[in-house]
Amino acid sequence: MLQRFSSVIKWSELDTFPRYSIAWGLILVGIIPGFFMETPSTKFAFRMMLVASLGVVLLLVSMFTSKNTREEKMASNGSIVMLFLCGIVLYFMTGVSREAERYYPLEEGLTWLYRIHSEGGGEAHLLVRNLPKEEINGTSVAPQEYITKDSVFTNYVRRDEEGFYNFASRKLGKGELEIEKQISYELLNSLRAGKTWMIQETDALLVESISYSVNVLVDSVKEEVNLNGNSFSPCIKISSRGQTEIKNGTFVATSELWYAKNVGIIKMITRETLRTSLGAQEIRVTLELVGFQGSKEFEMVNEKSTEQIGRLNEVAFGFRQKEKGLILYEEEWLTPEQYDEKQRNKGLIKEDGKWLTSQQYAHRQRAKGLVLDSEEWISQKEYENRQKERGLLLYRRRWITQEEYSEIQKRKGLVVHKGEWVRPEKVMLEKVAAGWVQYEKEWVRQEKLGELFEKTVEEYHHQISSRLFFKIAQDMDLISNKLRSAWQKKMLELYQEELSSGEKNTAALKRSFLEKVNQLYNIDRAEHRALATALDRLDKKSTFRSPVGSQKRYRNQEEPYQWAIEALLPQVKRSNQQKELPQKSKTSSPSQLISKTTSKTTLPEKSQKTEDLTITPLEIPAKNIQNLCWATMPNRVYILTREGVLNQLDLENFNLKESLDLGSPCLSVSLSREGIVVLLKSKEELWLIEERSFRVKRKITVPSISQVITTKKSSVCYALSRNREIAVIDLRIGNVGTISPRSLVPSKISNQNRMRISSPNRLALSPNGRYLFYESFKTLCRFRVSGKNLIFEEQSPKLGLSARQISVSSDSVYVALPFSRGNDTLANVPIEPYGTYIFKTTNLQEPVFSIGAGASPELVDFDISAGQIYTQNSENQLIVFDFRGKKRKEYQLTRRGDLVEQYLVHPRGYKLFVLTREKLLWVELER
């Protein structure tokens, strides 16, 4: 067969020397590179082996076809030696090529667990696994999966004739496969010490979006490393260093990496340094092998590493399930359809890809300006149209029926006139202007008045005492304006003509007089008894002035004749006052309002008007003012100075109506149902001052209290003592009781929350007197007021530190606890930096909305009539929000940094006092 093969290729026809020379040449070409290449690649080694094999075949053919001459015999012996050397070189070439794979094993199933330690950053674990080999774009690669507790990604490793490098990568759940644009070898096939190569890096810990060149060096191939009780030898140590210039500095990265035989990477130390003009910043990360599984030659496992591997495998499993579109719910992986069905069964509502509770969904819809109507969320305009179609009316932000609206207007004392609800005074003015007069609560024409008066005079003539009636007439000009009925003037003139008669039945006179006053004034029982007593005292007087020539003349015809009720009542009440109580000042000058020592003569300065705001500064040093509160009379305000002077200011012309020197520094003033409540600082007393007479009605000793609150609808006030107890003070009888908040907390609340509830810092009472709020350990707590008892109801989540006040709206619907650093963010309720949550007074768990005013928002007040919320920050003294949390406008009323001490909003809205540390401002906003 060889003869036939040689004859085919005409090999035997060649001479001996050329035949052997060609064969030996092919063998030498195949084996000589093996002597000069320290570590040839596998592909190159097999190519050279094929060349040498062809030479061996030709050499064997020559040997079997030789004619056994001496020359050919020598060639045959040399060929045998050459075959032996060829085998050795080929074995060496293929063996060395396989040696690099032992330091970078890519066999399926191998698992590495590494511990990563960062200086100042704690520890973490990394799990690396070899997956089955794949093909990407026709290229065979070995996938390696990297698992941490936060992410899972896969590197696809490829080995070519030069070494090992990452061919592609993919992060689980984060998009498609990414092919590397350039080759960066991690390990070369050459394992010779001193070998260097260059790679390009694009990742860094200290700097983002950076690209720099790295010089890699094989330091040693015979290292020995002891790690976690295991010795690894031989190991390859590889070091690298990269440096680049960045903006305003230099970035340097170095690393040391150890590869162990049959294991792979066992240790790595990375250092990064960033030097700038501001200084140097450095970070060091160490990676160490703590577990190794899957190798027959060596395994490194223990109970702790096995447990950690199991956890990370569960993480990887979860990421794969999420990539499939599954959702983990109650330890079960569900499809989106199954998950949605379970959420619906729980009563949740899906919006914008999120499942919300009914309360959260309602909060979002309200924030959009929608309104719930018959289980349907509709726009505000559509809702108003529906309510109007139902025959309802919008009254104070509440829809009511026509009957309810009529009852409310009647309780206000309004009457229907020309299809509108108006005050009786307006009707009276229109009737008088039209020539009508009021008689016995009815309006009649003037021509009929004479006939009615004659009947009235004849009926009462014999029952009226002339002297008593004339005494009352003399006191008419001492009484404030109250009645403006034209028939009273005419009746008095008729009586004066008949006052020449003597004594009449005084008892009948008093009875008829009281009945008439009751009809005109609708006085209560206490005023009725006081008036009767006053009439008795007048009746006991022995002499009266003669009516002849003693009629008083009035300034004009429109000035009314006024009855004796307000002239007589102060005489009764004045007799009960104690002589040692301070008396009101006889004169009302601005100097009393400002302090005891100033001599200013005018209060308002020149107003400053802008497009939508009018500011009237008052010439009152703000540092002298303690606080302000509204009086019962409209457009009247009480101003308390720190020195202890209580003043009543009329806003119509900014004149002082009353002034009372209390003789001691004061802490606060407020208005209750029983009168004005003032807390004196040094005397530790609570003084109750009557509004009408402006005299001290009662003194109540309240030791060790720092704050007193009340409302004009309550006869009880609450005080906060220095030992964190709440004092309950009955202003009608002067009784004082104390309550410990801890004793009111229900037993079902844990001891930890009980401690948070039991330390009140500041109090606030809702204007309707139903709820008592206080701040305790960053939370807002609510008591329900039941008589003199307090019932604990609710505690809010943590809201923040350093609150100055608790703000409650005038309609007792909203409450807020502002902090200078803003409220803490609550779960599922976003808030702006330095923001303040607005809660319903009946629900302290979920805010209705929030307002973001900027740095240092310490005060919040509500203007219910205007539908606005007022607050401030470190730069602007007034910031206006609506009741959806949207900012309308902000104003800098005084200089920047002049902090606000108090807001006092006018009950009719769009007006307020702004008390800063330097000024008192009266602010009027455009409607």
Notes on the structure:
Helix 2 (16-36) runs parallel beside helix 4 (70-99). Helix content is 26%, strand content 35%. Strand 21 and strand 22 form a beta hairpin. The protein is α+β, with helices and mostly antiparallel strands. It is elongated. Strands 1, 2, 3, 4, 5, 6, 7, 8, 9, 10, 11, 12, 13 and 14 form a 14-stranded antiparallel beta sheet that branches. The protein has a 5-stranded antiparallel beta sheet with strand order 27-28-55-54-53, with no helix packed on it. It is built from 19 helices and 55 strands.
Secondary-structure blueprint:
Layout lengths: L1 H7 L7 H21 L5 H23 L5 H30 L11 E8 L3 E9 L3 E3 L2 E9 L4 E8 L3 E9 L6 E2 L5 E4 L7 E6 L10 E16 L2 E17 L2 E12 L3 E13 L2 E15 L9 H21 L3 E2 L4 E2 L1 H10 L3 E3 L2 E3 L1 H10 L2 E4 L2 E4 H10 L3 E3 L2 E3 L1 H10 L3 E3 L2 E3 L1 H10 L2 E4 L2 E4 H15 L5 H9 L11 H12 L8 H16 L3 H15 L25 H10 L15 H5 L13 E2 L3 E6 L6 E6 L5 E6 L3 E6 L4 E7 L4 E6 L4 E5 L4 E5 L6 E6 L3 E5 L6 E6 L4 E5 L4 E5 L1 H4 L6 H7 L5 E3 L5 E6 L2 E8 L2 E7 L11 E2 L5 E3 L18 E6 L8 E4 L7 E4 L4 E4 L6 E5 L4 E5 L8 E6 L5 E6 L3 E6 L2
Offer a concise description of the structure:
This protein is of the alpha+beta class and 927 residues long. The chain is built from 19 helices and 55 strands. Helix 2 packs antiparallel against helix 3 (42-64).
Return Rg in Å.
50 Å
Classify the helix fraction into a percent range. 25-40%
The biggest beta sheet is recorded as: 14 strands, antiparallel
Alpha-beta classification = alpha+beta
Secondary structure tally, helices: 19
DSSP, total strands: 55
Strand content: 25-35%
Span between N and C termini? 117 Å
Instruction: Based on Cα principal axes, name the global outline.
Output: elongated
Low-confidence stretches: 1-14, 92-97, 460-471, 473-506, 538-602
Mean pLDDT: 76
